[in-house]
Specification:
The chain is mainly β. It has two helices and 33 strands. Helices cover 6% and strands 56% of the residues. Strand 27 and strand 28 form a beta hairpin.
């Protein structure tokens, strides 16, 4: 390469380097203190939409903008910046190499460090590695343990105290700018918890609902407008479930709290907390959602059979009698509100009036005007026994079975027990001692009254074609 070519190459390199330095320009920093508003929309599926407006004084031309205070679980590709038509974002880096003792020492592997000994003396050497404890070279010796305190000349430039978005930006002119910034982040989720308090007779109940919001995003949010979306949105990744947090708030504590405002959001429901709140990092918060009184409740006793009872496999069996409580989510029942998925804990009252837990169940997202049924446990004083009285294999594909189901009620009140049989195949009830109902192609239902301290015997014959 001749001198002329070297001169042209050097001039080109100087020009590029000069342009790069000029393009970088000054650095502007922005922290959460610059926020003028903050909104947070949390979904059920470890996801939240953050929208914040920050007021900044920006230079003209090319500059670097450090947008600090973002969560560790941010999804940088979802960033949307609006509010300033004069600003152009050319490039974005998400810097999350955070300071810690280990990360700082990693940056000094192969470099000289010093120690301050207990007697005040000073020793210098080279840090060789830290993978399983620091290893030093002092003089011509390798030392695994060095008494005293390590002293570093400076912090590595590439480490940050908190995750930071660094933008390479341009602006047409100098001046104040209100940046409207939105992005998605993981680490935030919410779930609903309900308390259904029955009256003494178990016919009416009060329903209280709360939401528990959990923040594990790596950032805290102060003075935030909080909204919650109820519904299962599709994400192009495997959703990560949040931890199930048990309700720790007594129903009386929030009985008169303002309820959340609810509205339809296309095919979902959106709830808005009617006051600004705070969500520190690594914390959970419970917020009152709804309160309803005088809800009519029905108690249901159910015995369930399986398809194996009609293939000749079982001759006699003692079955559990499950207890459920059901109510209509309708305006006429003092409800008629969308109920997000969550855990419902059912409480009754003992003879002294104190509340006692009867059981709990989980409901899915329930629209208004739908029925809610909660299976809470097994009845102690109601017994169900079944006995196969006859079985005939008419052919390889046709089975005929006669069952006798005995229900004994040791309670001091009359009850009704639903016997639900999962039959399967093409079935026909040949005869039965009580009226029956074909619930579906797979299920047969008998509703049997049982007197207090009495018993009821159900007898029926079913023919099944497979």
């Amino acid at each position: 390469m001749n001198a002329s070519m070297l001169s042209r190459r050097a001039g080109w390199l100087v020009g590029v380097l000069g342009a790069t330095v000029a393009l970088a320009g000054p650095t502007v920093g922005s922290d959460p203190v610059d926020r003028t508003s903050l909104e947070l929309t949390v979904y059920n599926q470890d996801l939240a939409l953050v929208r914040e407006v920050r007021r900044l004084d920006l230079p003209s031309g090319d500059f670097a903008l450090e947008f600090r205070g973002v969560p560790e679980r941010i999804r940088p590709a979802t960033l949307l910046v609006a509010g300033d038509p004069k600003l152009m974002i050319l490039e974005q880096n998400y810097e999350y190499d955070l300071m810690s003792r280990e990360r700082i020492l990693e940056k000094y592997v192969g470099r000289d460090v010093a120690w301050i000994l207990e007697d005040g003396g000073r020793v210098e050497g080279r840090l060789l590695g830290i993978s399983q404890g620091p290893v030093f070279q002092v003089g011509g010796e390798v030392i695994f343990e060095m008494p005293g305190r390590i002293v570093l000349p400076e912090l590595p430039e590439s480490l940050r105290a908190r995750p930071t978005l660094v933008w390479r930006a341009q602006r047409q002119e100098q001046g104040r700018s209100d940046l409207d910034v939105s992005y998605l982040t993981g680490g935030l989720s919410w779930n609903a918890d309900y308390v259904l308090q029955l009256d003494g007779d178990g016919a009416l109940a009060d329903l209280r609902g709360w939401v528990t919001v959990e923040n594990r995003s790596g950032a805290g949010y102060d003075d935030v407008t909080l909204q919650l979306v109820a519904g299962d949105i599709q994400q192009v990744r495997q959703a990560m479930g949040g931890r199930d947090i048990q309700m720790r708030v007594k129903s009386a504590a929030l009985a008169d709290a303002p309820q959340m405002e609810s509205e339809s959001l296309y095919d979902y429901h959106l709830y808005t907390v009617p006051w600004q709140t705070a969500l520190p990092d690594n914390s959970s918060k419970q917020v009152s959602m709804l309160a309803a009184s005088g809800v009519k409740v029905a108690r249901i006793y159910t015995v369930r059979g399986g398809g194996h009872y009609f293939r000749g496999g079982v001759n006699q069996d003692r079955q559990d009698v499950w207890v459920s409580y059901a109510f209509a989510n309708e305006e006429g029942n003092n409800l008629g509100k969308p109920l997000p998925a969550g855990t419902v804990r059912v409480y009754g009252r003992a003879g002294d009036g104190r509340q006692q837990l009867l059981g709990e169940d989980r409901i899915g997202h329930t629209p208004r005007d739908e029925r809610v049924e909660l299976r809470v446990g097994k009845a102690f004083d109601v017994v169900a026994e079944r006995k196969r009285m006859d079985y005939e294999r008419v052919s390889d594909r046709v089975h005929r079975t006669t069952w006798e189901v005995t229900l004994r009620n040791h309670k001091r009140e009359d009850i009704t027990v639903d016997v639900r049989e999962s039959v399967g195949g093409d079935w026909t009830v040949m005869k039965s001692s009580h009226a029956h109902e074909k619930v579906s192609a797979q299920e047969l239902l008998f509703r049997l009254p049982v007197k207090a301290d009495g018993s009821t015997v159900l007898s029926y014959t079913v023919e099944v074609r497979y």
